[in-house]
Predict the structure.
Amino acid sequence: MRLILVDDSWLIREGLARLLSARGHAVVVAEEPGRVEKLVRATAPDVVISDIRMPPTFTDEGLELTRVLRRAHPRLPLLLLSQYAEPAYATALLELTGTRACGYVLKDHLLDAAQLETTLARLLAQEVVIDPTVVHEALGTRLDTLTGREREVLALMAQGLTDRGIAERLFVSLNTVGTHVQRVLAKLDLPDTHADNRRVLAVLTYLDHLAGR
């Protein structure tokens, strides 16, 4: 797999690049986001991995890079990294990408080689990957109309799993998952729009709750 890795920290950049290279991936590194669009055109990567906070402001440079790349390369998978669980960033990422081929993962969790490969594979499949640490913190009083199983289903939706993926994770049938999803959408009182849009709204509601805690 061809990857571009963008991070201003030498330690993180080199450590993750070595891990990825050891797994057989071809990695091109960059210290700041300004060079990335040119690198994308030159190398045609399968995935771009970027820190969120980089020079010059150390605020949301990774999100701005996501905005630029998604506009120019709509199907290019984009993975944002962070040292901390910041739900507002996860919400912004989903809004920028339309919940497709994007991810938000804590850096520490990418040191697990198996999880790293799973994350990359899901991104290549145009799925969404939200770090479980971010997702699990979202369970709270604003969602207290949901049952425990419904909140579990919503948490998996927020991680980007399809109904089939949720069914496999919970060892239940697709019909059972479909019933839970419909109950979640109804209880959150979301606008009666296209089913995919309502699902996105459910995830955004979930992450907005986390952002407000």
Observations:
- Residues 2-130 form a domain with the Rossmann fold fold (CATH 3.40.50.2300).
- The chain has a mean pLDDT of 85.
